[in-house]
Amino acid sequence: MAAQHECPACRRIAAIRAGTDPFFIAELSESFAVLHEHQAYEGWCVLLLRDHAEHLHLLPVERQQRLAGDVARAASAIARAFSPSRINYECLGNQMPHVHWHIIPRHLPPRDPDPCSVVWVRPPSELNRGVDPARRIRLIETLKAAGLR
What we know:
Elements lengths: L7 H11 L5 E4 L3 E5 L9 E5 L11 H22 L3 E5 L9 E7 L17 H4 L5 H13 L4
Antiparallel strand pairs: 1-2, 2-3, 3-5, 4-5
Helix pairs in contact: 2-4
């Protein structure tokens, strides 16, 4: 089990609580919604469980259900804001030992170069684009206006 001070998600949550994370969107029932730092897939959000836990299945069922509601709420806002043809939902734990969900809007080509594959197979140069600060602000405002608040 990673110590909270070593956990990148816990450090990020500390920044959210301090009001210094520029990618923060909203505090939800069980999670904090943030815009992903790289916007190769416009509207890509991550939900970070509000407290440190490494395994989804170890959370009480009630918390799992509320977290699922957070995921659905974020996905609905993404759908309203960006009209994707599909949305990918990924709860991974092999890179960051903290329960978190990636909610990734997917589109048809040419906007999405490989809509039938997971985004992780795309070249790093394509994924790791960052996001211009003005665009980041617009995307966050768009998501909030679509109900992610």
